Amino acid sequence: MTATTPNAPTKLQLLELLAAVGTAQWQDFAAVASRHGLTAMQAKTLSQLLGTPVPMRRLAQRLVCDASNITGIVDRLEAQGLVRREVSPTDRRVKNVVATEEGVAIMRRVRAEMESTHAALDTLDESEQAVLHGLLQRLRPAMEHQD
Amino acid sequence: MTATTPNAPTKLQLLELLAAVGTAQWQDFAAVASRHGLTAMQAKTLSQLLGTPVPMRRLAQRLVCDASNITGIVDRLEAQGLVRREVSPTDRRVKNVVATEEGVAIMRRVRAEMESTHAALDTLDESEQAVLHGLLQRLRPAMEHQD
DNA sequence: TATTGTTATACTCTATAACTATA
DNA sequence: TATAGTTATAGAGTATAACAATA
Question: Which CATH number fits domain A28-114: 3.30.1310.10, 1.10.10.10, 1.20.1050.10, 3.30.70.20?
Fold first, then answer.
């Protein structure tokens, strides 16, 4: 055992810790979304639409699921008036999904509530948050599957 | 801007990064489980049974879902011969779930494969892994809802 | 021919409510 | 009465396969 790493964790331990924290974060997100009448998946989808319109196909890639699922997810968002389908002017096969004003407003509220329910992160001081951010940022590209 | 935290991340940025890494980890887990004929939820359940038997009710608490769901999850694991229900000797209402030999064997393989598919973690050297572990460990109790 | 989105289908996970058998 | 597990039900997410419209 070296002096620099007194308690070197097993890779498995670190993976499980990552899983535990990730699960907790997801459940928090789902709870906040639910208070606004959205499922976690619907909220996640909506959060992809705060900027420019996104074709269905690309949405499937970003949400890492089969394209056929997007139809139903967007259907349910559209039924709530939070999203709109627009045929692409350049390729009439593709449909761009656009968040409505209400969709954007709801999603902003969800994000704000997530941020204000930040009690867990206050466990760490600002510099520790910066360190965590840096480490996770380096981890992310290696974990996300490129497509 | 202080000298010690040159790039202080927003809480929202950190939350989203945590979500991204958590999602990637979950998808990796699901992919490995799938290669062994299990859903992510089934694998997660089985991983709770490597030690002592666990009553259905406690399983529901640990998996953070309604008790009624456990019936189906355990049914499917039992149908694959990976798990067994045993009536508690001390309270005939409760059923303890026990992993069979094959259940333990499969779960050990899943965990080993998760560990060997650790490429992402190798992005960080050993001392960085220790720092990450420490930070996440402090975050966990604040994020997980006590019950 | 290839691609985009949709439909049909089947399975799993999820919560709610009502039920049973124990305690 | 209260608790453990189950069943019935309904909804949401998931993948596969087949399809129409468009490129």
Answer: 1.10.10.10
